[in-house]
Every structure is written in C-alpha cells, then in structure tokens.
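@channel sequence for tomorrow's demo:
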Amino acid sequence: MKITSYFPYLFIFYCVSVIAQGEANIWYFGTNAGLNFNNNPPTPLLDLPTVGMFSSEGCSTISNSDGDLLFYSNGEKVWNKNFQIMFNGDHLSGHNSSTQSSAIIPYPGTYNSTENRFDKYFLVTLDQYIEQNPSIPNKGVCFSEIDMTMDGGLGGVTTNKNIHLFGTSTTEKVCVVPHSNGCDFWVICKVVDSYDFYVYHISSSGFNLTPVVSTTSVFTEASPGQMKVSSNHKLLSYVLPPYSANPGLYVFNFDNATGLITDKFSDLTSENHYGAEFSPDSKVFYKCSGSRIYQYDVSVNSNNDFVASKVTIMSSVAGLQSMQLAPDGKIYIARLILNGFPNYMGVINNPNVLGTACNYVPLQQYLGGRFCMAGLPNQLNSLIPYNNILIENEYCNALQVSLENNNNINSYSWGLSYASAPGTFISSSTEANPIFSFPDYNQNYIITCSVLSNCYNKTYELLYRPTVPTYITPTFNISTTEYCQNQTPDVLSTVSTEGILGTWFPNNIDTSILGTTTYTFTPNLNQVQCAYAVSVTITVNPVVSFSFSDEVVCKNGLIVFPNTNGIIGTWSPTSVSNTQSGIYTFTPNNSCSPSATWQVLVVESFSNLTISTYNTTIIANVDNVNSLLLYQLNNGNFQDSNTFENVNPGCHTVNVTDIYGCTNLSSSVFVFDYPKFFSPNNDGYNDFWNVFLENSDTTLSIFDRYGKLLKQIRQDEVGWDGTYNGYKLPSTDYWFVLDYDECGIKRTFKSHFTLIR
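structure tokens (generated this afternoon):
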C-alpha cells in the first residue's frame, strides 16, 4: 500500500468478507469437542457420539463453502459428516498425538458449484515424531486421496491411500497454503535431521511428488510443536522445544508463487515452545510456552527489533498448548485437562493489537462439557489466496484501488456505497484498477470488490472515511498578461509550478482578437494535490504605428514637440533645441506602438550680401550659406541661381532668402549700358538711339563733336532718329550727356556713340 503524508483519507479498518466461504466454520477436536463458527459467537458442538473422534493433539476438519460439515480426521482415521468412519477411511499413516497430525487440501479443478465444495481432496498425514510402530514401514509423511462422490456423497478414500512422501519419523508439522495463482496449493513440511524444507505443489494435475527444496539455517530433529503460515501467506513460523538441538522460535519468508523459504527472524530463547499463530493482519505473532503467552511484532525490519518486541501477554496458568486463528478473526488456545478447566478455551480477542490490549481472556469459550486436549484443527480459514483491497493511488478527491493479488481473475465487480447503506452502490466499475470519487466528506464508505476466477469467487470490502482535503492555488510562470495584436504568445503550461496537472479554457492565447480574455485553468481529477481552478486575464492591445514630419526652425525660433494624438510616452532627448539640429525619439508607454523619430533642422542666418555686375549680368553672393538659397530680382520669381543675365540697365533690387525663409537680405544694384551705334535706315533694326534706364529719372542730351546740342530726349520718347531740323546727319560719332538717378543718387554720364548709314 502506498501511503503518503498528504493522503486525505482516514482508514478505519480493513474488512475481508467472503461469499459462502465457510470451509473452516466447523471444528472437531480433543475428546468429542467441537465449535460451530457459523454462529457468532461460536457455539459448542455436542453432536459427536461418545465413541467419536479422540485426538490428544493433531486434527483437521473441512466443510463446504456454506459451512456444512464434510469430513474430519485425527490423522489415523477420517470420519464423514454423519460421524461415521469414511469408506476406506481407517488405518491412515498419521497419529493423533502428532502436533499437526493431518491437513486437508482441495484438489484444484474439481470444484462443484452445485454442492459448494470440491469433489476431491487430499489428506496429508504425519506420524508422531517418535516412530510408534516400526512394523509399519514408510509411515512418516503420507497423503491419501478422498473422493466426495463415493458412498452416496458421503465420500471415501480412494486406492491412492497412504502414499509415502518422505521420512520414518516427522517434525509433526504441516501447513497448507494457497498458491499465488489463485487455484493451486502448497503443502509445507520440514525434513527430520536436516536444514531442508519440502514444499509440494498441488494442482489440477494432482499431487506433485517432487518437492521444492529450501535449505535454511535451521537444523531440526523430530520434535513436536506447531508450524504456521501467516494470513497473507508470506511468513512461516517454526518452534523447537528446549530439548532439541536448536531450541527457539524461527520466522521465515515464504514465497507462495515459487514455494521457496528463506530465513527472516529468530528468538533462540530456550522455552517450552508448542503453540504458534499469526494475527489476521499478519503483523503480530503469538506463541504458547506452557504457562505463558508471548507476543512479537513481525512488521519490524531487524532481528534485534523482533526480539526486543517480545511481550508477555499472560503468565501463571499451565497447560497452554495449540493456537488456532478462527474464522471470526480471534485466536483460540487449547487448554489441557490437567489445567483444571477442561471445558473452556482461552481466546485472544484482538490479535492485531500489540501489547496486552490484544485482550486475552483465559476462560472465554465454553465447550459445553466436552474436553479440549492439546490440539486444535489444522485449518485453512480461506481456501483461496490471501488478498486485500489496496490503495493504488491517492488523489485529491478520489481513490484508485486494486487487489493485492490478482492472478487468474476473470472478472471484477467493484462498488462504492455509503457504510450506512452497504450494497447500494453510488458508483461501480468492472475495471481492474477503478477510481472512486466520493460525494460527501462527512460519510463513511465501503468499497466492495467481487471477483470471479477459474477457481473461486470472493468478495472483499474496505471501510474508510475521507477527511476534507486542503486545497492549494496553482501558480504559473506567466511572463506577461498583455500582448500586441498578432504577437506570438506564450504557451499556457498544463502543469503548475506545484506539479498540478490540468487544462486551460481557452487552451491557447489568441492574440488576433483585441480586448481582454479570461483563461481558466481547471485541475485534472484524480491528482494527489487538491487544487482550485484559477484564471488569468490576458489583454491584447492594438498595434498603433505613427510618424512625425520633420521640421525646420530658424535658429532661436519657436519650436515644440509635435502632437502625439493622445498617445502617452517619453521623448529622448527630453527637450527640443532651437539652436542645433537634432533627431528626437518618442517611445510610447504602450508597448504595442513602436518608437518614432522626429528630425529638427535648425537653419542658421546667412550674411553679407555682395552684388557684382558684368555689363547686364548681376551676380549675388552671401556668407555662411547653410541651406538652399533663393534669389529674386526686383519682384520677379525666386530662382536658385545667384546670377541674373540680360538685365535691363537701371536700378534693381536683388533679394536673397533661404528656402525656409529664415533669412532675407536685399541690395540695390545699378546696371548701366547704352547702344554704341545705330543705323537709322528704316529697316526696323536700330533705327533709333536712346538710353533706357529702369527705375530712374533721366535727362538725355545729344551733341555733335563741336558741342552743338542736337537733341534732348524725354523718357517717354522713342529716341533720336539721326536728323536735325529735318535733315539727316552724316555718319560719324556723336556725344551725349545723361543725367540720371542711380538708385536714389543723382549722377551724370558722358560718352559717345556712332551713327552709321
């Protein structure tokens, strides 16, 4: 059984219930004494005739599964249910003064479900440890076959009678143990003057005469005393009296799958050992030593602990002999006539309990006036393998159960019921290892398992009471509860950090859907740790992408960070400069919005506009150019070239600015030019001579080379046509005087030109 510290159930006790398993319910022993365990408490049987069975020590009895007597024996004879010597049932090779003079074993494969019994049995007999009748050869350990279909159903011993197994004297000890396969049996015997045990396998093929031999550390002679196997069929006890070579108590391990026996414990105290028996739970061992009953704890691990666990249960009354575990779970103790109370038996009422609380009562069981001798029936309380309901796994709100031995089981029928209503199943199962949950922690429950095998059927019960479990809250290593839309999410683990298994709903984080979603973890049923369901809220935020337009600011101009449309975040650097160009990064607090940059170009002033002229060409230049410049002549269009060609003579204004309009410089420039010749021949080309100046007030006077004034031209006139008083003047050079306004400054210019005809 697996029991852990957090197991939430309180077990009250184990209870094994057998359907119609009453094979050990009738006892006959001593001088016509008997007990009927079909009643509780058992009642004395007074139906044996006065000339019925006498056994000073060993005897055996068998009933059908309903508890009805089939036959009984003292090792010398076998009687049927009518108290008559069975057909061919006398002259057996045993002896009534052998401690365990006989043992009855069912013949596997012969079970008769109509009669609730086997059709055949084997009867193993043992002679007394001192050879009583040397004239009868091979009388040591023998067996005979009994056929219950003979003599009209009363049974008879077949021709397979007194089949010798070994020895001429015996250790007076024999045990029968169900095989682990659920069908067969083992017969355990000890060889005289040897270290060996012989273990015989009985199957549907019969009695295998070749034993399994186990050599132990214990050498034994022929001597009386009981040998017993524990109820779980895993331990074997053996006692040797003080006059033997190796007196003491020995406990061995027994493997009912292989038949092998190995050393386990020993108490070599030299006492009058005789009676021996294990408790029903196979954890406590008792022995009788004349006037004392001793108790040992066989659940310990070491031999020192075994010897140290020895407790005296009672002392002072002599004549305590055989011990036998009865179907009612109590241990009965034979008391000889010489002890003064021939009509009573002692009883250990609670043999599973360590110490005097095992409750030994010396004169508890009355025999109705019949006499108990030294022996009690060498019984099998159950003809099938020891079994028990085990807790296979302990869960928070459920149990998984199984049977300890499950060989050759054809079918299972499990049921869970309230202890107050046994048999009314709350739930049921036909699985080998079912899981049961219970609806109410304040109730006691019974788990029932009925099995059917090739060789038997049986029902087991386990009574338990659950306690309210302590719940824990599972935790998970969830890295974040916020995601951006379509971001790759974490995987929701189905195992919490405490090891709790469960499922999520929804089972995966979906980041394609905006908003908040609750994901719930539900622990699986049938786990050791009890856990609550827990939830986690996941938020999926939209991905907002944005950008800023780069800006230009004139140096020392006003500039602030751009509008972020309500998105909260931080700028780096944290302040914007209007004296130095730079790149600024905005990081939103919302991780789903990426960072964006904003570039600021600070435009510095340019200076020192200088103008150069070449004839009618104007060239403008400035210092500290740091951006693209635009140039304008008068009110004309801006251009990116600093050169103006074919400019009309006169006063002009040159404007220079940058493309951002941060600096504006202007300068006046005067372009002066005049025609060097003209040809007044009426061909439409150069027919008139004049000096035109834009944006200037002018007075133009023309002279011949002698200084004679020939013509004064107004600004609104077309010019001089080369005549004077109606006459054409000859081709030659002429002089002129120009009074003009040079961009606000009065100037006079004198020169000459040529008239060509």
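heads up for whoever presents: Helices lie at 303-308.
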